[in-house]
């Protein structure tokens, strides 16, 4: 079930990235957030119902809830025209929690690539905190591009590797993911920094209504 959920998280991050970049209208993106958010709450609930006392299964479900609640929060908040500070500060909680889950993957589960992926998610959700919680609107374009990179690199790619039984927990794959993540996130900043020509978000809405 986890690989299926990852695939659709990739879809919602892709649409939200395009929303932040002004290519998708916010309320239109909110609908997909509701669909994926509901799925990311139902699936871990089913997992918990079957987990019993299996700590690893319970931990996995807890991690999925963080994102399911984010997408529901974003979808409902956008459609109801709510202020973004609530989802922004919740994103900070998710960002900190993701660091803990990264440690679990590195030192307990020994799934090194997903340790790196959790750190990538932590950084992305921290950007959502800055953008939505602290109203750092000048980070809209940078956050949009980092969201787009995560949609494909940290979510969709692992999902397809898992679905095709080609995923590996090797340290080598983890190093490759880490290097790519650092290079992309660092490289995007000078290209999207405030004041650079073309760094303003184009399109129908530049208000950072959602991004998770």
Give the topology.
Elements: H1 2-20, H2 26-51, H3 55-79, H4 85-109, H5 112-133, H6 140-163, H7 171-192
Helix pairs in contact: 1-2, 1-6, 2-3, 3-4, 4-5, 5-6, 5-7, 6-7
Explain what this protein looks like in three dimensions.
- The chain has helices at residues 2-20, 26-51, 55-79, 85-109, 112-133, 140-163, 171-192.
- The longest helix is centred in the N-terminal third of the chain and has 26 residues, at 26-51.
- It is mainly alpha-helical and 212 residues long.
- The chain has one domain (2-192): Serine Threonine Protein Phosphatase 5, Tetratricopeptide repeat (Alpha Horseshoe), CATH 1.25.40.600.
- The protein is built from seven helices and no strands.
- The chain is globular.
- Helix 5 (112-133) runs parallel beside helix 7.
- 42% of the residues are buried.
- The chain is 77% helix and 0% strand.
């Amino acid at each position: 079930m986890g690989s299926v959920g990852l695939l659709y998280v990739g879809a919602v991050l892709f649409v939200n990235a395009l929303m932040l970049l002004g290519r998708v209208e916010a309320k239109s993106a909110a609908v997909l957030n509701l669909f994926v958010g509901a799925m990311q709450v139902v699936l871990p609930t089913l997992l918990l119902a079957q987990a019993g006392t299996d700590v690893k299964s319970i931990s996995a479900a807890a991690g999925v809830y963080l994102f399911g609640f984010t997408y529901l929060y974003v979808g409902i908040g956008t459609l109801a025209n709510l202020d973004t500070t609530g989802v922004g500060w919740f994103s900070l909680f998710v960002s900190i929690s993701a660091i803990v889950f990264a440690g679990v993957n590195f030192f307990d589960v020994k799934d090194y690539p997903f340790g790196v992926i959790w750190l990538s998610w932590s950084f992305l959700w921290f950007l959502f905190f800055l953008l939505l919680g602290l109203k750092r609107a000048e980070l809209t374009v940078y956050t949009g591009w980092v969201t787009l990179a995560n949609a494909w690199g940290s979510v969709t790619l692992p999902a397809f590797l898992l679905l095709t039984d080609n995923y590996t927990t090797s340290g080598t794959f983890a190093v490759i993911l880490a290097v790519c993540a650092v290079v992309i996130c660092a490289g995007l900043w000078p290209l999207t920094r405030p004041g650079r020509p073309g760094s303003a978000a184009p399109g129908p809405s530049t208000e950072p209504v959602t991004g998770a």
